[in-house]
């Protein structure tokens, strides 16, 4: 009897805390078919996406006040949800926290100004857009990954056999174990770091205007590489064989050549940032 009373009191306290904070929890469920599409437009707040073994999309939304509503819409296997800000809403009162469970082959589009944005263990296409939002994508295969941010940091981990495009104004971009037929990162002033093997016989392009580029690869990497910084320093830890490019190497600011069988093409380009092609220590 005493235990039941304790549980009841604890439950009342938790519910009271939620109600006192003005938060509201909503849960939406949608049955979908193969290659479903889910889009979340959320001006303020995080969005986390994880796989669901069932053909069902589950959306859990925590609304932080009555200054925001959620407007869901289903058209077949396409689900669109918009956080609708009401009069007087600000980044705190207009915040909605989303947690999604989606089929592994679903295509996901996430928009949030403040984020963070997170997706993991999917095989569909992933599109993320934000301003200051932290972006974290990991353990994806086969799908396309398109990321666009202003100054939020971007981290991609264990992405394979996909088409990857990242565009950032000033946020740092970190890629670890990312490979595929096409990998492109473009930043105005953020640092770009890559730690992987440039595998898959793909095209890799890392470009920044004033930011630095650090590319770390193992001794067995198979690449044809071009690196150039107009006003910055360029360093290379590998012994390069002459390539077939018309590119002119300049000591300290540009180099080109091949490593092993040159299966993948790699371009490292910056206007004034430092570039370092680093050999990973085993």
Give a quick set of tags describing it.
elongated, 12-stranded mixed β-sheet, 7% helix, 282 residues, mainly beta
Strands, helices and their partners?
Layout: H1 2-21, E1 24-31, E2 37-42, E3 47-52, E4 56-63, E5 68-75, E6 78-85, E7 96-103, E8 107-112, E9 117-120, E10 126-130, E11 135-141, E12 144-149, E13 154-160, E14 163-168, E15 173-178, E16 182-187, E17 192-195, E18 203-208, E19 213-217, E20 223-229, E21 234-236, E22 254-259, E23 264-270, E24 275-279
Parallel strand pairs: 2-6, 2-8, 3-7, 3-9, 8-10, 9-11, 10-12, 11-13, 12-14, 13-15, 14-16, 15-17, 16-18, 17-19, 18-23, 19-24, 20-23, 21-24
Antiparallel strand pairs: 1-4, 4-7, 5-6, 20-22
Structure overview:
This protein is mainly beta and 282 residues long. The protein folds into two domains: 21-114, no CATH class; 134-282, no CATH class. It has one helix at 2-21; strands at 24-31, 37-42, 47-52, 56-63, 68-75, 78-85, 96-103, 107-112, 117-120, 126-130, 135-141, 144-149, 154-160, 163-168, 173-178, 182-187, 192-195, 203-208, 213-217, 223-229, 234-236, 254-259, 264-270, 275-279. The protein has a twelve-stranded mixed beta sheet, with no helix packed on it. Strands 5-6-2-8-10-12-14-16-18-23-20-22 form a twelve-stranded mixed beta sheet, with no helix packed on it. Mean pLDDT is 90; it is low at 1-20.
């Amino acid at each position: 009897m005493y235990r039941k009373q304790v549980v009841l009191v604890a439950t009342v306290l938790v519910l009271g805390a939620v109600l006192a904070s003005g938060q509201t929890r909503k849960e939406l469920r949608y049955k979908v078919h193969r290659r479903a599409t889910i889009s979340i437009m959320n001006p303020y707040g995080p969005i986390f996406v994880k796989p669901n073994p069932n053909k069902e999309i589950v959306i859990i939304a925590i609304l932080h006040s009555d200054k925001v509503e959620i407007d869901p819409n289903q058209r077949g296997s396409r689900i669109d949800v918009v956080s609708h800000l009401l009069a007087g809403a600000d980044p705190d009162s207009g915040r909605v926290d989303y947690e999604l469970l989606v089929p592994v082959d679903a295509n996901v589009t996430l928009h949030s100004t403040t984020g963070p944005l997170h997706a993991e263990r999917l095989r569909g296409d992933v599109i993320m857009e934000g301003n200051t939002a932290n972006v974290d994508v990991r353990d994806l295969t086969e799908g396309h990954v398109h990321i666009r941010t202003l100054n939020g940091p971007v981290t991609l981990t264990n992405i394979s056999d996909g088409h990857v495009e990242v565009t950032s104004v000033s946020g740092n971009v970190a890629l670890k174990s990312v490979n595929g037929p096409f990998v492109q990162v473009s930043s105005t002033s953020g640092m770009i770091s890559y730690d992987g093997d440039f595998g898959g016989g793909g095209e890799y392009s890392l470009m920044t205007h004033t930011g630095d580029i650090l590319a770390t690869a193992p001794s067995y990497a198979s690449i044809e590489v071009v690196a150039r910084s107009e006003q910055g320093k360029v360093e290379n830890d590998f012994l390069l064989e002459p390539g077939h490019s018309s590119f002119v190497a300049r000591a300290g600011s540009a180099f080109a050549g091949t490593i092993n069988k040159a299966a993948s093409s790699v371009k490292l380009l910056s206007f004034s940032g430092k570039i370092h092609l680093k050999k990973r220590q085993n």
